[in-house]
Specification:
Elements: H1 5-15, H2 22-36, E1 42-49, E2 52-60, E3 66-68, H3 72-80, E4 84-86, E5 104-112, E6 115-124, H4 132-147
Antiparallel strand pairs: 1-2, 1-6, 2-3, 4-5, 5-6
Helix pairs in contact: 1-2, 1-4
Length: 154
């Protein structure tokens, strides 16, 4: 059952706690998104350490463990410090295929104090799954997460 971004935000507001480790909050957030959205095959986080995004909590099939900043959709979102929506990942230059079933992707950077802490990444087996409503909703979710995240997550 597809939940609205309003419902997802309400669940996360009630579930997350700034006194808990980031990995705990991000694990619950990944689960809420993975189970609350339809037509996705991966929902999770990559966390920045140095110039590398490292695999964090997620729901879905096993994923790439290490992504250089600037590489793939996740690295591009981190480098640009802006959300990247890709209707067809096969048309994105330098796309990193962690799951061959993925057709579209949206990545929202988690930026606090001007520093990228990581990215929120969702993949779908459908082409053009993500649009402006998803961007707005997921950027709101990112804002909720950033309120409970320390600047040192790894």
């Amino acid at each position: 059952m597809q939940l609205s971004y309003e419902e997802l935000a309400e669940q996360l507001e009630a579930l997350l706690d700034p006194d808990w480790p980031a990995v705990s909050n991000l694990s619950n957030a990944a689960s809420v998104l993975y189970n609350g959205l339809e037509r996705i095959n991966w929902a999770g986080f990559y966390l920045m350490k140095g110039n590398v995004l490292w695999l964090g909590p997620f729901g879905g099939r096993p994923a790439c463990v290490r992504i250089e900043a600037g590489k793939g959709v996740c690295g591009a979102a981190a480098q640009r410090k802006e959300t990247v929506v890709v209707p067809d990942v096969h048309q994105f230059p330098g796309h990193i295929a962690c799951d061959g079933a993925s057709r579209s992707e949206i990545v929202v950077p988690l930026v606090k104090g001007g520093r990228v802490l990581g990215v929120l990444d969702l993949d779908s087996p459908d082409y053009a799954r993500f649009g402006d409503a998803d961007r707005i909703g997921l950027e709101r979710i990112a804002g909720i997460l950033l309120r409970v995240m320390d600047e040192e997550v790894l």
